[in-house]
Structures are given as C-alpha cells and as structure tokens.
C-alpha cells in the first residue's frame, strides 16, 4: 500500500502541494507507470528498506519495453539501484521474472558485498553487478491502483 504521495513529473496531477514539497522534494512519480525515482543517495539495503516503507519495493523490470522507458526517465543520473540482487539473482519483491539486461562481462563471478544490481544510464541502461554498499539514487515501484487514479 502507499502511505505517501509524491510530486509528479511534468506538472500533472498532485494533491497537497505544500505538504508534498516538504516531504518529497527528492521523489518523482513517473505518471501512469507506478515508478518512483527517488533522488536520495542510499546503499542498496537502505534503498530497499525505504521503498518497502514508503511504497512497495525496489523496482522490478519485467521486459525490454520497461527497460527502455526507464532509460529515458533516469538519463540525468549516471547510476540507479534496481531491485535485482544475488540470491540466485532474484528480484527484491520476489516476483518471478527472467528478464535481464546485463552489460558486457556482467554479472561478474565475484561474490560478497557486490551482490546488488544497478542500472547504468551512461552504458545504454545496461545492468551492472556492484557493491551493495555503493550509495546512489534508486527507483521504487508503488501501488499502481493508487498512483494511476
């Protein structure tokens, strides 16, 4: 469920603008997608906790269409966390999804603290296996029924 509202990209609908300016200056709802781009710098685990507390979870990318949509949305940021992590490379929200968009040579065979995945907008949106301790912006997904009303 969603317990907060976010500012809306492109000046579309928003409610309680004063409150939203105070609470979510750093979050953008991407209209009609259910994606929330959070422009705060957090490591992967803290980003996951934030998404689960305020929205649903870190973003699961289901197909190439969604991947292409995201590439254009986050083009001003070089790197963003997504919900994929190594535990047999599963999505944070536990959905079964086999879509992958790895950069060449990824995922690396090393393990340990580098078991999280981010999307590199400087490499055509390709996914890179990175240290979970790296701090960067991230994308959550929200409850679409609420967000798309």
From TrEMBL:
Residues 30-141 form the C-type lectin domain. PROSITE patterns: C_TYPE_LECTIN_2 (PS50041). Gene3D superfamilies: Mannose-Binding Protein A, subunit A (3.10.100.10). InterPro entries: C-type_lectin-like, C-type_lectin-like/link_sf, CTDL_fold. SMART domains: CLECT (SM00034). It comes from the Eukaryota. Pfam families: Lectin_C (PF00059). This is C-type lectin domain-containing protein.
């Amino acid at each position: 469920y969603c317990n907060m509202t976010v500012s809306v990209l492109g000046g579309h609908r928003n409610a309680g603008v004063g409150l939203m300016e105070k609470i979510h200056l750093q979050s953008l709802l991407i209209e009609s997608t259910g994606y929330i781009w959070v422009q705060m710098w957090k490591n992967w685990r803290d980003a996951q906790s934030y998404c689960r507390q305020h929205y649903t979870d870190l973003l699961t990318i289901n197909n190439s269409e969604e991947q292409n949509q995201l590439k254009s949305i986050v083009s001003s940021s070089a790197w963003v966390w997504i919900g994929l992590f190594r535990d047999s490379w599963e999505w944070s929200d536990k959905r079964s999804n086999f879509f992958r968009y790895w950069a060449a040579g990824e995922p690396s065979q090393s393990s340990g603290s580098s078991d999280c995945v981010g999307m590199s907008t400087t490499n055509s949106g390709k996914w890179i296996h990175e240290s979970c301790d790296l701090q960067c912006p991230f994308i959550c997904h929200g409850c679409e029924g609420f967000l798309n009303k």
